[in-house]
Amino acid sequence: MNVYDAERMADVLAAQGYVETPSIDDADLVILNTCHIREKAVEKVYSELGRVRENKAERARDGKETRVVVAGCVAQAEGAEIMRRAPVVDVVVGPQSYHRLPELLAAKSRDQAVDTEFPVEDKFRQLPARRIAPQRNVSAFLTIQEGCDKFCTFCVVPYTRGAESSRSVEALMTEARRLTGLGVREFTLLGQNVNAWHGEGPDGKTWTLGRLLRQLADMEGVERLRYTTSHPRDMDDELIDAHRDLPQVMPYLHLPVQAGSDRILAAMNRRHTADEYRRIIDRIRGARPDIALSSDFIVGFPGETDADFAATMRLVDDIGFASAFSFKYSQRPGTPAAEQADQIPEQVKADRLAELQAALERDRAAFNRSMAGRVIDVLVERRGRQPGQMAGKSPYLQGVHFDAPDDILGQMATVEVIEASAGSLLGRYLGPAGSVPDHATGIAPAPAEQPPSPQQRNANAA
Ligand code: SAH
Ligand code: SF4
């Protein structure tokens, strides 16, 4: 979402005559868009500000002025603190106020240049239409929902991003239509809690994400749809059916579970058990058998015992994730879990993280290797590093490289996977998508053609 927000900030500033510079040395205005989710991300902001300060001093020696903005969730949470600790900063702007950047930049004093309010009016309505082609060109982010009302006990999001709010179908269709006009073929719908989206439909009724996906799938030019990040409790039938019925909805789902122990899940206020999560996954696999699953994990949540951690490892073995993100629990100011007395020692967290990551990496590599020999469609996003090479994504969000003529850039290509390493796939170009008969991607493959899920692979190995 920070990538999306940064693009929108660029839109606002482009209307003021600003252009992006390839190097920070050329920039009259530097914006750090920041993340508050873990302590490590926050530390990065302050060390980066040190570098920006040196840069500003160097430019000043050449008689050039540099203005510095801190945006995003660190700005939201620690605006006053940033102004105090880092005099290099001119403007602080929270994630709900960046449409006001031009005014804030015009402010005469630093005191007037802090905006971390949650304005009642819809930020999106204030933003200019998206004018620059998004970074990846054919694949664009589209924020449909912001904020969170779930209050997991470890998480700062409900405080930094505020209460849940959903954009209307009309606003989203307008933005999507504009982007397909610019050549976008894939949308990744974004939200802190994307499947809790419940926007107003053109019929005045409240729509769910499953229905929105149907509407977007009908839009001319839309070839692929993805969405992130979802909460297990909001995986309703309509959404699961969309995975079964819509070839545009890609067979990849990021559905964070965080932990495998019911005791820890309850302490986290996730409001589901590990077995409920397993059953949700069964339903999703029932609808789309080849779906690749991904999750986030936190190890070392306060009070996590060896037995609790073992339950997480069991869940990993049971599900077989195609990819995952995993973190050591980080105490976040103002969150309930940060106040708990039974914090876990750093070394225990580090050991558990290493063990978990080894298992996740094993499954990811196995999933990637299972792609060898398969014929898949690839959305070609950019040129590869080698001359003549193209790069894009498989339906399962894996990076794929292959040699192909230049005119396939921005199009869908059919590719045979000839080498599947743990990290990415190397392919042989067969032709533009649609020109190669007898393979099914996008459309759910018949059972015999599915790649083995890591779960099946584990069963075979056993
Ligand atoms: N809304 C999503 C997650 C958003 S935050 C969900 O409910 O799943 C992204 C990820 O950061 C989380 O899934 C979690 O794994 C991680 N995270 C959030 N707070 C954290 C903390 N205090 N310490 C460590 N990891 C954290
Ligand atoms: Fe944070 Fe996600 Fe929980 Fe909301 S649902 S509080 S964003 S982890």
Please, could you describe this protein's structure?
Residues 1-110 form the MTTase N-terminal domain. This is tRNA-2-methylthio-N(6)-dimethylallyladenosine synthase. Its EC number is 2.8.4.3. Keywords: 4Fe-4S, Cytoplasm, Iron, Iron-sulfur, Metal-binding, S-adenosyl-L-methionine, Transferase, tRNA processing. This protein is α/β, with parallel strands linked by helices and 462 residues long. It folds into 3 domains: 2-115, Methylthiotransferase, N-terminal domain (Rossmann fold); 123-369, tm_1862 like domain (pyruvate-formate lyase- activating enzyme), CATH 3.80.30; 375-432, Nucleic acid-binding proteins (OB fold (Dihydrolipoamide Acetyltransferase, E2P), Beta Barrel). It is built from 14 helices and 17 strands. It has helices at 2-14, 39-61, 73-85, 101-106, 123-126, 157-160, 169-181, 209-217, 237-245, 262-267, 274-287, 306-319, 346-369, 454-461, and strands at 29-34, 67-72, 91-93, 114-115, 139-143, 145-146, 165-166, 186-190, 224-228, 252-254, 292-299, 323-328, 375-383, 389-393, 399-403, 412-420, 425-432. It has a 5-stranded mixed barrel with strand order 13-14-15-17-16. A 4-stranded parallel β-sheet has the order 1-2-3-4, with helices on both faces. Helix 8 packs parallel to helix 9 (237-245) and helix 12 (306-319) packs parallel to helix 13. The structure holds S-adenosyl-L-homocysteine and iron/sulfur cluster (SF4). Residues 148, 150-152, 155, 157-158, 192-193, 231 line the site of iron/sulfur cluster (SF4).
